[in-house]
Specification:
By secondary structure, the protein is mostly beta strands. It contains seven helices and 22 strands. A six-stranded antiparallel beta sheet has the order 1-2-5-12-7-10.
Length: 325
């Protein structure tokens, strides 16, 4: 019988990573010096999540999708994606600025890499005072202007920068230029894809004096050059109510901020549900007597065959609830 699944984190050492995965999320990434990311729920080849607890402990997510099919992911999801698990959940600790980058859409990623594209969202868990991130351009930009700015090393002059605070949400469709600034700890929910075109890396070098590879030519045709009036995702922050933050073709994400017990019914959702605890702690209870404790920085995958869960907060908690529409 399927039950709420938790997975072993996959730790990623990054040139820009820090210590918050350890100090704030309490995940021990020894012996890595600086952990920039943990992949919490992943079906990316070479980085497949492994079940941490229960009767299925030690099995990986690809094996589970192959074995349980629509019972795990939902009929519509299995018909669409087959044995590929369609979402990837990460925590990211930016101790330094990440590279300026862009991700291709499905069409371009399929053509160039035989992969899904990468639309994603960020939920800010914590931000140092003055922390900023980039989403999109600060004005209308032509392709030629962009290419010139890259060549002249003036790209940062045309980027839209946003002040960030805990609880902020940013939706980043494929094609949007972006980077996470230093001092930000966030949760990322995205399509299952690891295709990133790195445009500029602030001329930094690794411990061997090497610069990281850039993909400036690949990026040119992947970018959406349109300027938008508002890049921050607006949602109403409410207590003891489910609030929708993002609805896209690839995932729906709701923000649940509760300090009292709540029953969530998933009979209308033809998909698995991923719960990501981004503040506080709770216990996820299901029929059959399963109790899964989650604290800030932990996730649970609720299989599609489970029609309801009871969320029991330990004080005040905030959870992201994501599924495939």
């Amino acid at each position: 019988m399927l039950y709420p699944l938790t997975f072993e984190p996959i730790f990623k050492d990054k040139i820009w990573g820090g210590q918050k995965i350890k100090t704030i999320l309490e995940k021990d990434f020894s012996p890595l010096p600086n952990c920039g990311e943990t992949w919490e729920v992943s079906g990316v080849d070479g980085n497949i999540s492994v079940v941490a607890e229960g009767a299925l402990k030690g099995k990986n997510l690809k094996e589970l999708v192959g074995e349980y099919k629509e019972k795990l992911v939902g009929e519509h999801v299995y018909e669409t994606f087959g044995d590929t698990f369609p979402l990837l959940v990460k925590f990211i600790d930016a101790n330094d600025d990440l590279s300026i980058q862009v991700h291709p859409n499905d069409e371009l990623a399929k053509e160039r890499h035989n992969s899904l594209g990468k639309t994603e969202m960020w939920y800010i868990l914590e931000a140092d005072e003055g922390a900023k991130l980039n989403s999109g351009f600060n004005r209308e930009v032509t392709k030629d202007e962009y290419v010139k700015a890259v060549a002249d090393n003036t790209l940062t002059d045309i980027l839209n920068m946003e002040d960030v605070h805990a609880g902020d949400v940013f939706f980043l469709p494929a094609g949007r230029v972006h980077y996470i600034g230093k001092g930000i700890l966030l949760a990322e929910i995205q399509q299952t894809s690891d295709i990133t075109y790195r445009i500029y890396d602030f001329d930094r070098t690794d411990d061997k004096g090497q610069k990281r590879e850039l993909h400036t030519e690949l990026a040119v045709d992947a970018i959406n050059y349109h300027h938008y009036d508002d890049y921050k995702t607006r949602y109403e922050k409410k207590r003891n109510e489910s609030v929708n933050a993002v609805t896209s073709d690839y995932f729906v994400t709701n923000v649940l901020n509760f300090d009292q017990e709540v029953l969530h019914d998933y009979t209308h959702v033809d998909s698995f549900v991923i719960l990501v605890c981004v503040a506080g702690a709770l216990t996820v209870q299901t029929e059959g007597g399963y109790n899964v404790p989650l604290k800030m920085g932990q996730c649970a995958l609720i299989p599609a065959s489970i029609n309801s869960v009871t969320l029991v907060p330990d004080g005040d908690m905030t959870v992201l609830e994501s599924y495939v529409p």
